[in-house]
Amino acid sequence: MKEQILECGKGTFCLPHSAISDQFEKSSIPSLFESKYDVAVVGGGASGLVAAIFAAREGAKVVVIERLNRVGKKILATGNGRCNFSNLNLDITRFYGENVKFAENALEKFDLEKTLDFFERLGIAHQVEDLGKIFPKSEQATSVLDVLRYEMERLNVEERCNVAVTKITRKLHSKHDKGAFLLSCETRTTSVRGGYPERTSRVERAQGNNRERVEASLCHFVIRAAKIILSTGGKASPNLGSNGSGYSLAKTFGHKTILPFPVIVQLNFKERFVKQIKGVKFKGKASIGVDDQILRADEGEILFTDYGISGPPILQLSRKAGEQLQKNKQPWVELDLFPDLSNLDMEKLIMKRIAFQENKPLDCNFVGLINKRLIPVILKEAKIKNINMISRKIKDSQINSIVKILKQWRFEVIGTQPWKSAQVTAGGIDVKDINPFTMESKLVKGLFFAGEILDIDGDCGGFNLQWAWSSGYVAGTSASK
Ligand SMILES: Cc1cc2nc3c(=O)[nH]c(=O)nc-3n(C[C@H](O)[C@H](O)[C@H](O)COP(=O)(O)OP(=O)(O)OC[C@H]3O[C@@H](n4cnc5c(N)ncnc54)[C@H](O)[C@@H]3O)c2cc1C
């Protein structure tokens, strides 16, 4: 690449990548990298945007650096596009991590009341739905992102989109320079050239359609800031930006990572027959367990898929499943298709149906009670060989087996769906090396963290966004001091 230094905008310079580290070492060069920002927020997700707002409200000159073409893409995907942004039942017991007490301070400092007040002042009226879930009254995630962006604009927070931070260094140049952070950034630039684009068809070429060709090239530059907030998220849903790059950035400063694993994610079953019933939904109860112990249960709509199972209760249980899989344990899921009936009531109900129509084939006797596609599978699972037998010929032991499947149908969990299907990351940067009262690194002064990058995650239902807001608030206000 040709050696050149270009000005890309305030405080940023395009350099050939190979030159960047050399330039840092040369004391004559740093004047190029004028300290333009008090705070650079790396990652324009929920936590980064709130951190930027609070840092700017304290008077700091703030830049948000975002690798995607716009900030807050994940916010738009939350709550099925409605943004379940908090929960009435906010409590530390809804959060997880190796050292979960770490989250207490931020959740108290920027609690539910402060969160609702913050958003209300920005324009977000709210409504509470089932299980205490809080949504914007507009029922639009876009409105949450819009008000955050309006506020950033009001506070003159700069947004640098399509810019990925690839490396961060810190240099103590002289006694006049307090040791700013130098953020190596990469952006893709495009230029338009004449000629045929690669996908031009032969016909188009024959017609002489000499279209313009768009060429992409990488541009490298440096942003300098007195303090940085790492809010790059975890590894869940990488299509929405969070690709785990923040872990490598933090590791260069000595920070350790608790092994991340996907949570709020669908589960894979060992039993291959689930493929036959993929798409079948039912309202029921799911329990996750290991050995003889039930670890957690949840009710709601459950969906069989070709790999296993999905639905809100399953997503909620997935953390427990992930924890066990991390320990090389063998978790299981038990499904109850009739949580409102006891085993005895279930048995009575089946007997009553058989008595009503005792000459009907057995499988037909379950039509109207359970999804038709489940009937042969359930009867086979109950070890009933002739599922078309005349109903009155059924034995008591066979009724008991059917009840057992309907009420305690057990499946072996062999994994979760991959990162691209996960909503949240469990694990992440070890919080032992971070001050819970400021979110500042204990290893490097001026380095702050916020959001899902940290080894803190919450239940499904608004808790993860609440963690993003609360940790963002603490990091932003502390970094601006
Ligand atoms: C589909 C879906 C639905 C969800 N629904 C809900 C819900 O309803 N309620 C709830 O509470 N939670 C929900 N969550 C979880 C919640 O969205 C996240 O926990 C939260 O957004 C995390 O915020 P964050 O700022 O820590 O990280 P992210 O939102 O992941 O933001 C990190 C940002 O950093 C950028 N970035 C990463 N690396 C770099 C780099 N090197 N340089 C520059 N930029 C970088 C990324 O592009 C990204 O924009 C959902 C998640 C998903 C995926």
Q: How many strands? A: 22
**Span between termini:** 40 Å
Mean pLDDT metric: 90
Rounded to an integer in angstroms, the radius of gyration calculated over CA atoms is: 28 Å
> Which assembly state applies to the chains in this document?
single chain
Unreliable stretches: 1-35
Give the fraction of residues assigned to helices: 25-40%
Small molecules bound? flavin-adenine dinucleotide
Number of helical elements: 13
Largest sheet: 9 strands, mixed
Which structural class do the helices and strands define?
alpha+beta
Q: What is the overall silhouette?
A: elongated
Q: Which percent band covers the strand fraction?
A: 25-35%
Provide a brief overview of the structure.
Helices cover 28% and strands 27% of the residues.
Description:
This protein is of the alpha+beta class and 481 residues long. The chain contains 13 helices and 22 strands. The chain is elongated and about 90 Å long. The N terminus is likely disordered. The structure holds flavin-adenine dinucleotide.
SSE diagram, text form:
Blueprint: E1 6-9, E2 12-15, H1 17-25, E3 37-42, H2 46-57, E4 62-65, H3 73-77, E5 86-87, E6 95-96, H4 102-109, H5 112-122, E7 126-128, E8 133-136, H6 141-154, E9 158-160, E10 163-170, E11 181-193, H7 202-206, E12 213-230, H8 245-251, E13 257-263, E14 267-269, E15 281-290, E16 293-304, E17 308-310, H9 312-326, E18 332-336, H10 343-356, H11 374-381, H12 396-407, E19 409-416, E20 424-429, E21 447-449, E22 457-458, H13 463-479
Parallel strand pairs: 3-4, 3-12, 4-9, 12-21
Antiparallel strand pairs: 1-2, 2-12, 5-8, 6-22, 7-8, 10-11, 11-12, 13-20, 14-17, 14-19, 15-16, 15-18, 16-17, 18-19
